Each structure stands twice: as structure tokens, then as C-alpha cells.
Task: inverse folding
């Protein structure tokens, strides 16, 4: 369910906030407010599901909700830019704090900050499981073939990494014709991805 809702959020961003990379904060309005409420709702649902929600959590949920609502109410670029910078930081701090066992009695000191940092970076340990679940969603295969597919994808990613960081720059610096073709390809993809959806 969480994977489906996360994918739904990603699709919503792509469809309704596509112009963000061209227009910046001017593209954020009612669409950003809806996205923000869906985003907050997803994480609060997880908080409820993990039985970590307490009434005092409203002290951070309500202010974050008001920040999200401000995208729909105000058209001030400074306010939108500030909210865009402040919201993720506050969300990370308070959402991680919401999962601490002793959150009601925790004093905000250096140990608290270390706990928050530890919780924030703990998602790295889940990357493998997340990749596996997406792989199962895209390519449902038998267990014995999964290892082969994972190795193939790993090999392709390694090839891309080496090609983009070593081989293509080396060949481009050595051969002017190759450099021209790579630049033409880069210009083509830049043009394609900058086209509007409609």
C-alpha cells in the first residue's frame, strides 16, 4: 500500500507540478498545496499505522499543514521560496522525533540531534529492500531468476556510471568528432525533456 501511495504522489508531482523546473516557485499554487497535504497525509498514516501517534504530535502537524496551505492562499514568491526551504527541514526533524520512544520527555540537546541524524540516515539500510520490491513490481519472476536480473541491472548501472564518468569524457577530449556527436545527443535529450507535456 505504501509503495502504491508513494508512486501516486510521484505521478501527481509529474502531472501537476511539471513546470516547476522552468517557472520555479511561480508554478507552486493550489497544486502544491494538494501535493503537500497528500504527502503529509501519507506520513501521518504511517505514524498511525506504527502506533507512534500521540496527541502532542499536533504541535508539529498543524504548523506544517499551515505551511502547505500557504501555497494555495498566498502568491508571494519570497514566502513560497522560504516555505519550500523550511518545510523539508522541519518535516525531517519533527517526523523523526515522532518515532522516538521517549519523545515526550526528550530534551532537545546534542543526543537528540544525534538520534534524529541516526534515524534520518537509517533509510539507507532499506534501499536494497525498496529496490527489490520495485523490481518485483516491474518484473515479477521466480526466485531463481531474480539474482540474475539484479546482477544484470547492477552491471548496467555500473556500465552507465563508468561510461558517464570515464569513457565518454576521455573519448570526447581525444576525438573532436566524437565530442561533437555526444554534444548533439546531449542537446537532443535536453530539448526533449524541456518540452511541455501538452
Result:
Amino acid at each position: 500500500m505504501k509503495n502504491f501511495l508513494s508512486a501516486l504522489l510521484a505521478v501527481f508531482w509529474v502531472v501537476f507540478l511539471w513546470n516547476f523546473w522552468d517557472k520555479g516557485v511561480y508554478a507552486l499554487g493550489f497544486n502544491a498545496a494538494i501535493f503537500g497535504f497528500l504527502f503529509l497525509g501519507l506520513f501521518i498514516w504511517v505514524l498511525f499505522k506504527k502506533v507512534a501517534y500521540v496527541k502532542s504530535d499536533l504541535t508539529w502537524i498543524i504548523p506544517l499543514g499551515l505551511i502547505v496551505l500557504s501555497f494555495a492562499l498566498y502568491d508571494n514568491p519570497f514566502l513560497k521560496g522560504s516555505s519550500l526551504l523550511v518545510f523539508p527541514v522541519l518535516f525531517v526533524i519533527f517526523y523523526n522525533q515522532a518515532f522516538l520512544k521517549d519523545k515526550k520527555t526528550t530534551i532537545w540537546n546534542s543526543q537528540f540531534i544525534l538520534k534524529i541524524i541516526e534515524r534520518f540516515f537509517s533509510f539507507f539500510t532499506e534501499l536494497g529492500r525498496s529496490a527489490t520490491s520495485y523490481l518485483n513490481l516491474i518484473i515479477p519472476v521466480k526466485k531463481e531468476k531474480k539474482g540474475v536480473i539484479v546482477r544484470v541491472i547492477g552491471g548496467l548501472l555500473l556500465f552507465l556510471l563508468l561510461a558517464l564518468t570515464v569513457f565518454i569524457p576521455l573519448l570526447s577530449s581525444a576525438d573532436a568528432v566524437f565530442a561533437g556527436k555526444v554534444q548533439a545527443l546531449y542537446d537532443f535529450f535536453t530539448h526533449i525533456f524541456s518540452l511541455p507535456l501538452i
User: Anything to note?
Assistant: The chain has a mean pLDDT of 79. DSSP finds nine helices and no strands in the chain. Residues 143-194 form one domain. The CA atoms of residues 52 and 98 lie 7 Å apart.
